[in-house]
Write a structure and sequence with these properties.
The chain is an alpha+beta fold and 352 residues long. The protein contains 6 helices and 26 strands. The strands form 6 sheets. Strands 2, 5, 8, 11, 12, 14 and 15 form a 7-stranded mixed beta sheet that branches. The radius of gyration is 48 Å and the shape is elongated. It holds the Pfam family YbbR. This is YbbR like protein. It comes from Lacticaseibacillus sharpeae JCM 1186 = DSM 20505.
Amino acid sequence: MMNKFWDSPWVYRVLSLFIAVALFAYVNAEKIDNSIHTNKTTDSAVLATKTVSISAPLEINADLDKYYVTGFPEKVKVKVEGNAALVTTLQNTQNFRVVANLRKLSVGSHTVRLQVQGLSNNLTYKVDPATIKVNIQNRISKTMAVQVDYNKSAIADGYTAGSPVLSTANVQVTGARSEIERIYEVSASLALARNTHKNITQTVTLQALDSNGHTLDVMITPQTVRVKLPISMPSKKVPLTFKQTGKAATGRSYAFESNTESVMIYGKKSVLQDLDSLEVPIDVGGIDTTTKKTIDLTAIDSDLASVKPGSAKVTIKVTNSKSLVPEADSSATTKSSSSAASSSDSDSSSSK
């Protein structure tokens, strides 16, 4: 009986049909499950929300050619909440505006509510601060000279500061009339290190100050200037003179000549004002024939900071005197152009 059952072709036909239906059901069940999972993910993405805080510039809607507005912040924070995709796009593009509309306001102080423009209706937002206080004044402009300020005690002892050189000597100051009228000076303040002894060059941000040194809320054009402050040691040009020193040779007279007729001397003003020439001592001891010497000028006066040039070539001309004189130290002061000092001249003058 069982052999006849399995020998029937219908058994295999029914079994094949069952297997086919089972495979079909298995495959479609996976597709349906994947579809349901995909739909759930899509629905989650659509329903997901996001909150961000965006720093946005504040725009002032006013006749800024006629009025000068103060008191408002440059940027405000906007907290945006809504669909995650929309919020992310907004965060990346920031294609919205925060505006303070002052068009219908008059001169004076006002509290203004900020407006946000360009946001999707599907998003909610909150502006911080929601309102601002502004002061509206008539706008005026004025041209003013720039004053250079610096700490004079920072300059090294003995040095002085010259007149500052500015890239722009005059600037335009714009603001409320009440602020412009309070301006005492437009200051370019230099920062000097202690014991400054070299030229200073700095780019400085300008400030409008009142008589108490307080900064005023005005606009300065240009905002910066380049300042060069020359720092130098006081100097003076003086002629060279020569003074004979040392033990002169018997029967010899001396004359001094040099191509260096004058020098620049550097030092404190109190030292320079008492010097009308630089006296150079020439030691003639042991010199009995015409000789050339290079004299160090920097060690002549210890009160001087520097002498330029630092040395001078001097020709010591030696000639025989008409009369003999006893050996003794002799001295005479001569000019650098051409002069003579004789050990016998002083002796002959005394005999007269």
